[in-house]
Structure formats: structure tokens, C-alpha cells
Amino acid sequence: MEWFSLAITGEYESGQAGNGNISEIIQEYREDPGGLIPVLQEVQELKGYLPREILEQIAAEMHISLVKVLGVATFYSQFYLQARGRHLIRVCSGTACHVRGGAGIWEALQLQLKAGDNGTTADSRFTLEKVSCLGACGLAPVLMIDEDIHPKLTKETLPGILSGYR
Q: pTM, whole model, 2 decimals?
């Protein structure tokens, strides 16, 4: 992410995204000192992720530095700077899931989905990411697809689960 490095050093000049819907969201929170996070949340809900041009627009219209916007957007794992697949698969890598075979589930999913370097499949159907804990330790190993928890996984159950999202 070359633009990220340039923004941190202050060498990047922002462009204009010019999106009216985004301007309306920004306007709603512009005077709120804690408004950046809700703006990022609503814009990501609208666009699916936070592209560079949108982050520049947010910084310019909220009168804050791009570095601050990037700092918040990269600190919280809920924000995405790259486009994601239609379905987000979160695989738990916590202790309970790991002890009960979670690492094998991760490897099996990587093989089945053939996700690229950014974790997204070539058809943009799935994005695969590893998370520290899903809070369902008694059901380990678990994964979450969108908002659906899938408990007590085995490598053999994965194809059936994935078929419901194709």
C-alpha cells in the first residue's frame, strides 16, 4: 500500500472522491468530536470497504488529517481498505478452536477456496480471514460466515457449509 506510506510521511496529496452520499454522511457527523468512527462505519456499509479516495474525502470534509483517518481505519479490524468477497468467512484461531483442530479447518478452507493473497476468492464470492476468538469456545472449532456461526467443524463438513453460500 504505497499510498498509505506516502500519507504517513505527508508526501501524498489527496484527490477528490466527489460522492454525494458520502458527503451527506460526513455532514451529519462533521461537528461531533467522536464522529470519525461512525462516518467510517456508515461509509463502509454503503461502499463495502474504504477505498483510498473515500478516506481522502473524509479527511478533507471533516477537516482532519489523512494520517488520523488512516490511523483509525487501520487500528480497528472492522474496517477494510480492500474490497471483500460477498461472504466473509471468519475462522477462529483461539486456544479452544486450535486445540480442537481449528488449524486444520483453516488449511482446508484455504485449499478449497483458493483465496488470493488478500484472502478473497477469484470470483469475489468469499473473503477468508483468521480471527483471535469468536466467543463460542464451547462449540469449537467454529467459523462464522457473515453473521452465521458454524460449530463443531470438521474438514468433512466444510463443503456442505460452503455450498449454502454459493
A: 0.67
